[in-house]
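Blinded run. Sample ID left blank on purpose so nobody reads anything into the name before looking at the predicted structure. Input follows.
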Amino acid sequence: MIITDLPKAEFMMPGPERDRLVGLILDGTKTATATLLIDYVECDEALPKIGNRSVLVDSDDHGVAVLTTTDVSVVRLADVTDRQAIDEGEGDATAAQWRRTHEAFWNSDEYRAGFSDPTFPLDDDTLVVLEHFAVTETETPGPETDTSKFNR
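Blinded prediction complete.
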């Protein structure tokens, strides 16, 4: 049974994209994620640490797995590696592809609307928090859970 008093691990906004990412995590394809450091600063949230545990939630806010952080680093956007791109499991095979995909999201109006200064710069020197994780526990879906939404 999933421990419900752990912090939530929420990928993207609720909807088909979150559920696609949850599926990639559950099948072991996605083992890493990246967040702009400014996200942590603006939310007054501590950076992840190795050994941290969180509950992976789907778009219906159901806990589907426990994730354990296995590695964390803070790097310049220009220093993200191909390995990070591959470990994120979303189809990017190079850091250049990864950067285009992530910059499109990070520059979107929807993403930037949550910041006190939505015009913050995004350039080579922008700091990015890279987190690797492992699924350490999974929830057996109940009859009300539509697991087909996790299919890629």
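Unblinding after everyone has recorded impressions. Residues 15 and 51 are 28 Å apart (CA to CA).
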